[in-house]
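TL;DR need structure tokens for one chain.
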Amino acid sequence: MCILFSVSRMKPLTALGAALVLLFAVRTHAQSLGGSPASMNRQHRQARAHDFTFMESAARIRRFVAADLLVPLEGNRDYDLHEVSYPYARPAVRLFVERLSGQYRSACGETLTVTSLTRPLDEQPRNSHDQSVHPTGMAVDLRVPPTRACRDWLNRVLLQLEGAGVLEATRERSPAHYHIAVYPGPYERYVRRLESRARDYVVQRGDALLRIARREGTSVAALVAENGLRSDRIYPGQVLRIPN
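>> reply
TL;DR here they are.
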């Protein structure tokens, strides 16, 4: 049997204390981009909750495209596609890629690269997880940025969105990429809330992001993500979008 101890006095924790420690550990792990069996289970449950089909072949993907259940991602000035066999996804995934890539370009000055979208079951890689949601069209893989500043920015934004409960993000090591499963219903509601509440704010002399965030009832992380900022530096006259 495993007994948890408090750090300060090394005494056994109460049942409530142990539960809180375990809860903290689970949340910390979930917010690491490290991936886990629990994360794969959550993705799979979301696919089932949305009644998504796990498409078994290219022919099935074509039928879903014809029915507008999958939409094309064609790339733009903010993102491109690299060796993507099936450049289609659920509408919420396209919305996610377009919003994220626009913010990423503003923050990093470069395009975001998509490396995979929908994949049929009969073309899944041998090392893919048996609960992978790529065959449903609700997943996207992104290339890892070459510069640390851009990687850090992308990590922060993905962790924020994962914390909001609208996606699951994992930084895979072999091959190196970000795997992101977008939860269509939660993500689309999240975007609608942002768009309905977002408003412009003109930065005044003496303003700081932390001060603005506290005054407007939001967070520095949300301001950075909404405005695609590379740092917390702002200047008088700059127009910021306040997300909530």
